[in-house]
């Protein structure tokens, strides 16, 4: 495996400003924050993509995100709201290939925004939605086999 900056932080080879740690995941401050207080939550065991992440670890990461969102609001750091963001794959803008959940503190006028492509403004028909739902239903994740199960 190539060097992983998050694994290096977890192993203490690189510095990290830790906020939280348990047996499954660790949270630390992002070194290029969207806003002050931007936190990353990473699994302690390397997983490059969501498909490699143990289900319980993923669930724990979101439980921790809930606690951190509340802590951000109570911390005195400017925080009127919170966004959670997880990119899975290069096309989704994943830059570090170790699963990580961003916790962004947000406030009115912070300058951060999502940009939507032109297709966003064309609403799909019910048939298109139903067809997509059927395609996805045929490939539901089977946690026992750790792979996509075709039906």
Give the helix/strand layout:
Elements: H1 5-10, E1 18-21, E2 25-29, E3 39-43, H2 55-74, E4 81-85, E5 101-106, H3 126-137, E6 141-142, E7 147-148
The description of the largest β-sheet is: 5 strands, antiparallel
CATH first level of the domain at 5-108: which class?
Answer: Alpha Beta
Strand content: 15-25%
Shape annotation: globular
Q: What structural class do helix, strand and pairing data support?
A: alpha+beta
Report Rg.
Answer: 18 Å
CATH architecture of the domain at 5-108: 2-Layer Sandwich
Span between termini: 33 Å
Total beta strands: 7
Q: Helix segment count?
A: 3
Reading the helices and strands in chain order gives HEEEHEEHEE
The CATH superfamily title of the domain at 5-108: HIT-like
Report on this model:
The protein is an alpha+beta fold and 151 residues long. The chain has a domain at 5-108: HIT family, subunit A, CATH 3.30.428. Helices cover 25% and strands 19% of the residues. The protein is built from 3 helices and 7 strands, in the order αβββαββαββ. It has a 5-stranded antiparallel β-sheet, with helices on one face. Strands 6-7 form a two-stranded antiparallel ribbon. The longest helix is centred in the middle third of the chain and has 20 residues, at 55-74.
Task: Give a quick set of tags describing it.
151 residues, HIT family, subunit A, five-stranded antiparallel β-sheet, 7 strands
